[in-house]
Amino acid sequence: MPLAPILSSVREHLIGQNLNVQLVGDGEAITANMDLKNLRILLAFAVQRKSKVVQIESFLPVRIPEGRRPAVLDLLSRVNWTIRTGRFVVDLTDGEVQIGRAHV
User: Rounded to two decimals, what is the model's pTM?
Assistant: First the structure.
């Protein structure tokens, strides 16, 4: 499956920003690693079939220690309530944090 036109535009923009972009599967999504000052995050971009909406997920290399998870979950629940698009998700098995399903 070829990349959706909007996903091709996102890919070209990311390449223009000197990011290493990888195709996922047959082109249903792309990923890019972004190096920040003290953190490397993985960004994933996808488009649902016949849609012009780009879904963005970010995977943070942050794991919340088990004893701190209740407090962090409370904070992220409050934050999720106030943001329009996207959400923070915590994997309770290992404490990994994701920022998911932002729509652009």
Answer: 0.68
**Each residue's pLDDT tens digit, 58-104:** 877 788 999 999 999 998 899 888 877 778 888 889 988 887 654 44
Q: What are the structure tokens assigned to 66, written together? A: 């088990």
Cα torsion at 80, 67, 57, 35 (round to 10°)? Answer: 120
3-state secondary structure 28-54: CEEEEEEECCCCEEEEEEEECCCCCCE
Q: Is 56 exposed, middle or buried (0-12, 13-18, 19+ CB in 10 A)?
A: middle
CA–CA distances in Å: residue 87 to residues 17, 22, 28: 25, 24, 22
